[in-house]
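Input record (one chain):
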Amino acid sequence: MFIETPHEAKSLLGVLETNSSVVHVYYQYPDMHPSENKPLALFVNVLGKSYIVSFGHPDLIEMPSDYLNMVFKTKGTKFIFDRKKLLYHVSDIRNAVDARVCSYLDSKTDLNLNPTSQRYADVRSVPIMIILSHFKELCNSVRDIETFDSNLVSYEYDFSNALFEVERTGMYVEDFKLGSESLVNSDGMVFGQYNMLTPTGRPSNSYGNVNYVALNKKNGQRDCFKSRFGDDGLLVMVDYESYHLRLIGNFLKYDLPDTSIHEYLGRLYHGKHELNEDEYELSKKITFNLIYGGIDDDIKNNVPFMKEIANYVDVVWNEYSSNGYVNTWFYKRKIKSCFLGESPSPYKVFNYLLQAAETERNCRIIGRINEHLDSARARFILYTYDSFLFDVPREDFDLIKKMYPVITSNGEYPVRTYLGQNYGGLRQI
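The corresponding structure, as predicted from the sequence alone:
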């Protein structure tokens, strides 16, 4: 049914108030960043019927853009397919489950969101009935999905919202040479695009062939990123110290020192109190090789912290072997065998669990940071696993300092702070 009159539009809203539905928005340009894109048509499946609302497709009479917000405020449960993308165009999404993200994180199933098998530069040229056939395929995929675990649904909601708030701020650039000039908007901003559909669960962040979480700090790739506040602003990066080791230690309730863990472990590896620079770097390599590749008996007998980790790896492996999954630390969602391949090892399972712990804790911290920055001019502009990058005007420097108890969980996760005029020129303070 085509929704083309106010009466039809109101009737559909009434149905969505009391019934579960599948709702999907198709956009005008398939490859354009959502910050610049436009909703083209809304497709709804409810009570076995399909409804189509046009916001620019020439096959139908257009409805006002505000109608999109009305649909997503209805009380009925809605299965959607990309909450983070929708948030660029819908101010309030209620009672919705992101079927695409949840399907992937549950069973590694990636639902096809392309309107047709053929690529179009502008979806307005695709007949509306062809798009409808694709939408019906999406509806069938939702029917095949069992009810998602509530912990997974909660995680998707929190993380989609958290990443959206970071992604939408953009990064100010000057003399941008990492990609096409078309990536820079009229305000001098470029935008990444966080992707939550990765095997480890750690989101990637790239757009227009620019990988924003892998910018090389040694060859000048970061130098073009500067403060949007000009001479009155600075970029501030907060970087977690030995993040994975802190995560393990805090989870196991192991009493770690407040000083560098790499130095603490290096003293045990080398049997000496003072380490030179080479010994310190070597100790870091030894530690990473151990926790990612396996801890041998000699290390267990001489490094108590490593023995605790090895014992926990055995516990995790027994849990995985018995259940076919392990529960994550913070959201208690399941990491299933489909993510670990045909021949998982104890340390591979442990490492997936550890990366999930990093991501889930960051999800909660990012959400709390966004709340603190809600009415401030300062912006959270980049998240890269163990560090957060902020664009801060002078009047908000104290605000960043006041967030340290949140970022560090009251000192449980020590950080280093860097600032500078550009991302490549940050200096520790």
